[in-house]
Amino acid sequence: MDPTGYLLVGIGGFIGATLRYIVAGMTPKRGNVPTGTLTVNIIGTTILSYLTYSHSLQHLYLLNIGILGSFTTFSTFAYESFALLEQQTNRSFLTNIMLNCMFCIVGAGLGQLMANLI
Predict the structure, then answer these.
(1) Residue 101: which domain range?
(2) CB–CB of 45/107 below 8 Å?
(3) DSSP bridge partners of 33
(4) What Å distances lie between residue 3 and 6, 14, 16, 25, CA to CA?
(5) pLDDT higher for 73 or 95?
(6) What's the rounded Cα separation, in Å, for the pair 72 and 104?
(7) How many domains does the chain have?
(8) What is the pLDDT of residue 57?
(9) Binding site annotation covers 16?
(10) Is the pLDDT of residue 14 over 70?
């Protein structure tokens, strides 16, 4: 990758992490389920799917890898899910996993649908 690619990934990472912090912080919590992480994962998956299926590779470094790579939060999802399991809140643990998986897969499908329509 040329130096410009590294710069674009870094700038995108800064933007994505900042957006994640803002969006997750503004998302109201529902019980023990970490809805902020769920929200950013759904949004990020949908946008990434749209960009991928629309073949918008000119934005690969900045948007796909940089912004969306740092905006989505699979590592946070895994940590928060494990914490719910440790706290023995089994219902919240299962709910969190099911919601993230279901809605992010739906988001991937929506992204493909939008790319095909546009």
Answers:
(1) 3-117
(2) yes
(3) 30
(4) 5, 17, 20, 33
(5) 95
(6) 11
(7) 1
(8) 63
(9) no
(10) yes
pLDDT per residue as tens digits for the range 47-85 = 988 888 887 666 678 888 899 989 998 888 999 999 999
State the pTM of this model. Answer: 0.83
CA Rg value for the chain: 15
At residue 72, the 3 state secondary structure works out as: coil
The position carrying tokens 């912080």 is: 25
Q: What count of other Cβ atoms lies within 10 Å of the Cβ of residue 92? A: 20
Q: Are 104 and 54 in contact (CB under 8 A)?
A: no
Reading phi first (left if > 0) and then psi (alpha if -120 to 50, else beta), residue 33 is in beta
Q: What SS3 state is found at 64?
A: helix
Among 46, 22, 52, residue whose Cα is nearest residue 103: 46
- Which two three-digit tokens encode residue 31? 């019980």
> 18 among the known binding-site residues?
no
